[in-house]
Amino acid sequence: MSIELGLPTVGPGQGLRGVPTLSEGEALTRKQFVADNEVRWCPGCGDYAVLAAVQGFLPDLGLRRENIVFVSGIGCSSRFPYYLDTYGVHSIHGRAPTFATGLAVARPDLNVWVVTGDGDALSIGAGHLLHTLRRNLNVTILLFNNRIYGLTKGQYSPTSETGKVTKSTPAGSVDGPFNPVSLALGAEATFVARTLDSDRAHLTEVLRQAAEHRGSALVEIYQNCPIFNDGAFDVLKDRDESQARLVRLRAGEEVAFGGTDGDANVVVARGDGGGVEVVSRDVAAATGRSPVVHDPGTDDPSAQFALSRLDDTAMGHVPLGVFRSVQRPVYDDLVRSQVDAAVSAAGGPAQDADFTALLAGHDTWTVD
Amino acid sequence: MAATTSLDHVVIRFAGDSGDGMQLTGDRFTAETAAMGNDLATLPNFPAEIRAPQGTLPGVSSFQLQFADHEVLTPGDSPDVLVAMNPAALKANLPDLPHGGTVIADSDSFSRRNLTKVGYVSSPLEDGSLESYRVHSVPLTSMTVTALAELGLGRKDAERSTNMFALGLLSWLYSRPTDGTRRFLGSKFAKRPEILAANLRALEAGWAFGETTETFAVRYEVAPAPSRSGTFRNVTGNTALALGLATAAHTSGLPLVLGSYPITPASDILHTLSGLKRYGVTTLQAEDEIAGIGAALGAAYGGALGVTTTSGPGLSLKGEMLGLAVMLELPLVLVDVQRGGPSTGLPTKTEQADLMQAMFGRHGEAPLPIVAASTPGDCFDAAVEAVRIAVTYMTPVILLSDGYLANGSEPWKVPDVASLPRLRTRFAVAADVPAQESFRPYSRNPGTLARPWAVPGTAGLEHRIGGLEKADGTGEISYDPDNHDRMVRLRAAKVDGVDVPDLDVDDPWSADPDGADLLVLGWGSTFGPISAAVRKARTGGSRVAQAHLRHMNPFPANTGDVLRAYPRVLVPEMNLGQLSLLLRARYLVDVISHTNVRGLPFSSHELVQAVDDAITHAPPRTTARRFGHVAGRTSQEAHA
Questions:
Q1: Is the pLDDT of residue B188 over 60?
Q2: How far is Cα A159 from Cα A315, in angstroms, rounded to an integer?
């Protein structure tokens, strides 16, 4: 049996609803988000760029600093909360989403972030990630993907390319990798985006949209590990190479990239009935195939999923931007509304006498 | 009209196929008996399979209860009356029935096919093999079908009401009121009027059959038990535990957030709490055991009372998160309803073999307080106590129950919530921090060693915590050797310092110069069987003292003194001697371990034997010192 919950859904841009904001005229600075702790990532680590972007962008949200919480798991990226002067919890490997679930349900007045990596989120904690996305918990998840295990010194990860030679795979890894965006779309996440550690402007814009989304927002951040997987994303950072590879997704626009004006190639539906492929604009025109127009707002994630499949570990074509942004009832809102509805239907919070009646139940006898 | 005989106590076992509704029948008979004012104790016993192959031995489900005109401590060692709904139920349960006991069997189900399934060559109802029992062979099924003929149900549907016919018959036989059962059926089948009619008709027909037939020459009465005054109800351990958690959340002024994954025999706690939304209770059915405790800990960090419920396999999975809770020093209650292990083990049977895992089942030095419930009704008080310790000392607490307590029931005096003590909880605020100083999340209350509960949303107390070792006071990451040594000892000292009452000893010989010959020390659900055995042993002339542990960590401060005060200490446990091992290690006092891991509670008969054996065969420790027990205080003098 299932019943219609009859509960309110949410409109776009309400991710921060319920979180106390700064008073009129009050403002926080980037410096106020910098914790005293000495940052202990390796020199050149991509995490520094992400930290700087987050510290720089958090004041723009206009939230009270004490109402922001960063929860992380284990791994290099999971040290992130120590460096932000907000509330923060460095939990255990893979389990940050579970901790965030209880916290977000218990406290609608908090802006909750999860910071995780490709090992933490997609290996030991893959189950929790998928269930968090499925439920649509109101949380923003930053998934730092460097395609390697850094903190344990260089073993391959669930996003490493097949054949990766590492300390634990001297003959090359035989596992096929996950595509995190495809995975999140498969779990029907309501907000899925990808960005790059070195592209500060893009990173900041994606984070802003993710924070303002009500529901689970997954942001995959391609991030360089200079020690164990240096240069993994160089082809996306090199001016010439990136032109032919980076596919910037913009809502309502044709998916086009390449060439000097970023318009040489387009993404079109494949003729064989499934997926998309890249062709030159000239070929598309000659064969009468219209470029795909990106719509992150369709409930059916099929088209967004097809775009995610352009990317593989060879990074021939890498879409960046917001793949999907839709509204669906939010788990913690629903959980709270059931409790609130029951409490208000009963006329308010239970008092001692209500509890005594609860303990008595329906079948009592009295001895004088 | 049958004559009426008065009995002081009766033990009835209902047994049938898993699909025969024996648990429901037992529950209803129990409720009727509770309403009569008898004292009682119950033992449901069912297979892990929801519907094992019909009519087979593995599919047999049973429900035993003892009720009496005096205090009842156990569901009874062996039944006086066995209600067997089929040959499998008879075969599986007959070995427990003493000769001279009564069998009421549904003769309709003793078909050739059903007999063959369990290896009977001929029907025991007819071949004379039950001559030493009083056998009532009654066609329960066909009489039920006949009684329901007018209702126009199919035969299969009509047969489903046979358990209510049996309940009606037994209710007549033992003079139980059926009003409560009628009300129960009325609400259960409110939307299925045809099923409701069938069940009521079958119940009445069973009663009428008893009244009119001459099969039963005697009808029985068991007078109400004298009882303390007050309002009582019948309660199972799982229900009492859920109510205790909800009530303790209320008296501590905290919202309860339960993160749980379904697991036998703990799931009913999740079910009960999920229905208490009106009482401010939030329940999350997590994707797994780890997520359940993770959500509970996250909620605790946010200022809620975080609770997670599970059984042994789940406790194993939650171990790492418990370690984080120890490190974060946040309040959390983990309920472990123990079942037979290891691995999947005996999911529906009882055991006490998780004690060591509760004590030590985490990596590193990760001590936490442990509370054990002793009876179904006591699960309420044990839950309140677990919450008290968790919020007072900012620590995860493990609350141990087991399958016997979870599903067993007993009359319980309903507490008046207004008279329960309030549990004091306080969140830290910025004003706590002296001017010019920064917040120290790992500063400690000098009395309890608890750290402040500083919840997000509190301006001025922004801080970071995590699983890495903390610098004493500041909570910053620290790998300093001396600091780690200090923090490990501080966490242990906090748990060791939890205020728990002294162990209370029931010793009628405390003033006698010769003293008792033996102390029986138990913990958890063995309280009923041990108490019953001690009572019997004393009646038989043995000088036996009894004590029962609620706090397994830390142990009561006087535990060592109590152990040393007796020439012999017997420790019965449903494991291979885990408490005995702890006691010997902690107090250097040898104890006599008596163990049994059959998935069933001890019989008092077995424990009386163990008491006799210990007194007869175990040499007294000559170093034993007399133990005088006065109102919960201990005093000692040299043994004469």
A1: yes
A2: 12
Q: Is the pLDDT assigned to residue B635 strictly greater than 60? A: no
Other CB atoms within a 10 A radius of the CB of residue B24 amount to 18
Query: Among candidates A359, A357, A351, which has minimal Cα distance to B377?
Result: A359
d(CA B462, CA B441): 10
Q: Which of B176, B301, B427 to mutate to test the interface with A (most CBs of A within 10 A)?
A: B301
Q: DSSP characters for A240-288?
A: HHHHHHEEE--TTSB-EE-TTTT-SEEEEE-TTSSSEEEEEHHHHHHHT
Nearest to B414 among A20, A88, A364 (CB): A364
Distances from the Cα of B317 to the Cαs of A131, B285, B320, B626, in angstroms? 18, 16, 7, 45
Instruction: Say yes or no for a CB contact (<8 Å) between B277 and A363.
Output: no
- Nearest by CB to A349, from B280, B303, B477: name it: B280
B418 contacts in A (CB within 8 Å)?
Answer: 352-353, 356
CA A309 to chain centre: 18
Please report residues of B whose CB lies closer than 8 A to that of A354: 279
- Taking CA atoms, B154 is separated from A79, B74, B190, B235, in Å, by 67, 41, 20, 36
Q: SS3 helix, strand, coil % of chain B, rounded to 5?
A: 40, 20, 40
Q: List the single residue in B230, B234, B476 with the smallest CB-CB distance to A363.
A: B234
CB-based contact A107 B276, cutoff 8 Å: no
Give the tokens for residue A25. 């005229």
- Strand (E) positions, B467-605? 505-506, 518-523, 544-549, 551-553, 569-573, 592-595
Q: B463, A69: Cβ pair inside 8 Å? A: no
Block residue for tokens 């410096």: A31
More confident residue, B590 or B227: B590
Query: Would you call B548 helix, strand, or coil by DSSP?
Result: strand
* pTM greater than the 0.90 cutoff: yes
Tokens for B489?
Answer: 């000892």
Nearest to A107 among B297, B456, B466 (CB): B456
Q: Taking residues B398-419, report their average pLDDT.
A: 96
Strand partners, B289: none
Instruction: Choose the weakest-confidence range: B46-50, B155-159, B573-577.
Output: B46-50
Q: What single letter denotes the amino acid at residue B77?
A: D
Reported as a single tens digit per residue, the pLDDT across B447-505 is: 999 999 999 999 999 999 999 999 999 999 999 999 999 999 999 999 999 999 999 99
Question: CB distance B284–A88 less than 8 Å?
Answer: no
Residue ranges in B519-639 assigned as alpha helix (H): 527-539, 559-564, 578-587, 604-617
Closest by alpha carbon to B54, among B89, B6, B80?
Answer: B89
The amino acid present at A29, given as its one-letter code, is: T
CA distance A34 to B624: 64
pLDDT, tens digit, 9 for 90 and up, residues B263-274: 999 999 999 999
Which SS3 state, helix, strand or coil, does residue B76 take? coil
Give the torsion through C-alpha atoms of B342, B344, B345, B349, to 10 deg. 120
What would the two tokens of residue A269 be?
């539906």
Task: Indicate yes or no: CB of B294 within 8 angstroms of CB of A91.
Answer: yes
How far apart CA A117 and CA A123 sit, in angstroms, is 9
The SS3 of residue A217 is strand
Question: How far apart are alpha carbons B163 and B28 in whole angstroms?
Answer: 11
Q: Please tell me the distance in Å from A305's CA to the nearest CA on chain B.
A: 25
- Residues of chain A scoring pLDDT < 50: none
Closest Cα of chain B to A116: distance in Å?
Answer: 14
| A-chain residues near B417 (CB < 8 A) | 352-353, 355-356, 359
- Supply the ipTM of this predicted assembly: 0.97
* B459 contacts on A by Cβ (under 8 Å): 64-66
